[in-house]
Each structure stands twice: as structure tokens, then as C-alpha cells.
Amino acid sequence: MHIHPRKAFLLHQAQTSPNPLALHVVRAQGNYIYDDAGKEYLDLIAGISVCNIGHQHPSVVRAVVKQAQAFMHVMVYGETVQTPQSMYAAALSSHLPESLSCCYFVNSGAEAIDGAMKLAKRVTGKTDFVAQTNAYHGSTQGPLSLMSNEYYSQAFRPLLPSVHFVEQNKILALGSLPWDKIAGVVVETIQAERGAQIANVDYLQALRQKCTEHCALLIFDEIQTGFGRTGSLFSFQQYGVIPDVLVLGKALGGGMPMGAFLASRPIMNTLSNYPILGHITTFGGHPVACAAGHAAFNVLLEEKLMDTVSLKSNLFKELLIHPKIKQVHGKGLLLAVELDSFDIVNACIQQMLDQNLFADWFLYAPHCLRICPPLTITNQEIQFACTSILQILDKM
To answer: Does residue 306 come out as left (phi exceeding 0), alpha (psi in the -120 to 50 range) or beta?
Structure first.
């Protein structure tokens, strides 16, 4: 079939917006992506927090090839022993508390949220959920029900009923919730799509206390913050608060599509009886995705990529000072550069492409420029990116 990829993209591929960026990517390596003209772009978004160790790391590529040559899909998740799944689950649990030592692999972060919500209903026998205003947990029906922004959800109603919304860090609002009905509280330690807004320690501790008192599951969505992005393996480890369920995605698969939710063995066992197959997935924990994710996980640890995250974050914040920059929000290498409007951000993104920089904005904070590069970004690359951004803002 003789058709140019760009034409095929526009004619035959479902679009997510009226005006897609449509950059024709043909290769990615390290901290860079390359278009069909051979132009390189410093990647400042890492596939939206997916490529934490950069693109095409040799260890990940080798793991993918080796596993693809052995076997790919053989059976639905959970009924056969498949080494890539089992060993990756064991590796994750070795870095988590005992109460988060049982892993259910799925295909995406959104599916993991769905699974965590089902788990909360099954464990507690209750029906309601608490979510934060302006949170984003995915676009399938369950996560969409946790979305307070009517612009994105109203076209798809009716959604799941009985979701109660609270504003991040508003502890007093927790007292008015119907805790006798609440099965689970789904919360991000950093509200990524709101422009990297950070939760307070006392707020998360209050949520932990309320959930314990009222037999509700505390569910932490670390889909974007996980795997070193905030300077620790998981963001919750900086708060002294342990959730009942940890939800992962994005960087979990090392560039392959993957999600997971983790809990204790007794909690997770509730999905295996009354009814059996209480949650099931055909491709969840795909052996090639698990091999890639486990290899990337090992690279993250062996190369000690988390050790320099805070220093790199500080360098971004020190350099990104300009009259047009109101503030830089976030933690680690999940940063939001606040400007005056989406129009300015969009113009900045377009001009950044001319300056060999690839960037994006935030769903609920379109007036903020997204900075979440691979953790492997160098100080020299940070200086180049920041200098270019400031020069672009100077010309506006």
C-alpha cells in the first residue's frame, strides 16, 4: 500500500484533538527523538513520564528481543507461571512494604485504576468513592467518573454514581464525607495534570487516618510520579504514609504499555473468589512488557538515576526565571512552568520545536509548560533547554 505515513495518520487514524502536533517521529535514542527529516529534538516530556531512563536503553532492547524470541502471549493473566511476570512482581515488592507486596499487572494506568476501584468495592462491601477536584486518573469509564471537570466528562454521562470530590489539601472538607458508604479514596501525591500541584503531608496523613477509622481503602495514584521522578522510587515514600493500594503505569513498562495495582495478599485475594475471576485481563502482564519494565527498573536502580533528580530539579528552577514566568511548580523532574495563558504556552511549544526542543502542556493547567524529561537528562542539556525557553519568551 503506497501512502505517506502523515497522510495515513490524518485520514485513517483516530485523532484526539482537532489540531494534532503531527510531528513525524522515526527514531528515538537516549534523551532525543528524531523526525523524518533527521532533525533531533531534546525530549522534555519523556512520553509523559514514561521514558524515565531515556529512549532505547540497550538493556531494555536486549530484554525485549530475548523475551520475544522465547514466547509472547500464551494465556490470560494469572493462570500460568510466566517468569517475566513473576520476577518483575517480586522485584517491585522487594522495594515496597509488606502491605504492598502483591501485584496485579494490567495494560495501562487507567485499567489499573479500574482494578483498584473494583478491589475497594470487593474488600469493603461499600459503593462510594472520594476523589480530588481536578484530578486525572485516565479516560476509561471508572477513572472518568473520578474526574470533576465537566468539560471532559459531561459528554459521556451517566458515569459511576456516588463519587464525592474534595479539594487537594482541604483537610476540613474530609469531615463532611459519608464515610459509612466510602469504599476508597483515590488520590495523587502530586496532581500532575493540574500543573504539578503537591499534596501536603498533613493532608495525606489525615486521609490515611480517615480511611483506617472507617474501613476504606486509601489508593495512591503514582502513575506519573512513580519510578524516581520525584527523587524517590515512589513519591509516597517521602510522606511517611503507606496506602492500601498503589497504582502504577507510565514508566512501569520501560516504554511498553503496562499498568499495575499493588496491595497485600489478603486484600488482593478477594478478587479470586466469590466470584472467581473477579478481575481478569487477556494481555495484562504481557511477557515482553514485563521483561522491558523489569530491565528498565534495574537500570533505574543500578545507574542510581534517582540520586541526581533533586539537583536537576533545582537547576531547572534556578534557570527558569523570567518576567513572563509566574512560578515553577512541582517536585523532582515533574515540573510545570506557569505562564499567562494557553496561547502563550502553545506559541512557546511551537517555537521550541524550531529550537530542537519537544514539550507539551497540562490537561487542567494549559497555561503551564510541562517539563518532565528523562531522568537521564544532563546539566548541559538542562542549560540548553532553559536558555532556549528564555530566549523564546524574550521575543514574545
So the answer is: alpha
C-alpha cell belonging to residue 310: 533533586
- Looking at the fold, whether 308 and 290 belong to one and the same domain comes out as no
Chosen domain end from 269, 302, 335:
302
- With a cut of 80, say whether residue 1 has pLDDT above it: no
pTM for the complete prediction?
0.96
- 59 — phi, psi (to 5°)? -65, -40
- On the question of pLDDT at 188 being above 90, the answer is yes
Q: How many domains does the chain have?
A: 2
Query: Which of 350, 64, 107 lies closest to 249 in space, CA to CA?
Result: 107
Whether 78 and 26 map to the same domain: the answer is no
Tell me the pLDDT band of 376, cut-offs 50, 70 and 90. Answer: very high
Asked whether residue 193 carries a pLDDT value surpassing 80, the answer given is yes
Encode pLDDT of 313-365 as tens digits: 999 999 999 999 999 999 999 999 999 999 999 999 999 999 999 999 999 99
Do both 289 and 320 map to the same domain? no
Q: Which three cell numbers stand for residue 309?
A: 533528580
User: What is the arithmetic mean of pLDDT over 300-309?
Assistant: 97
Whether 221 and 354 map to the same domain: the answer is no
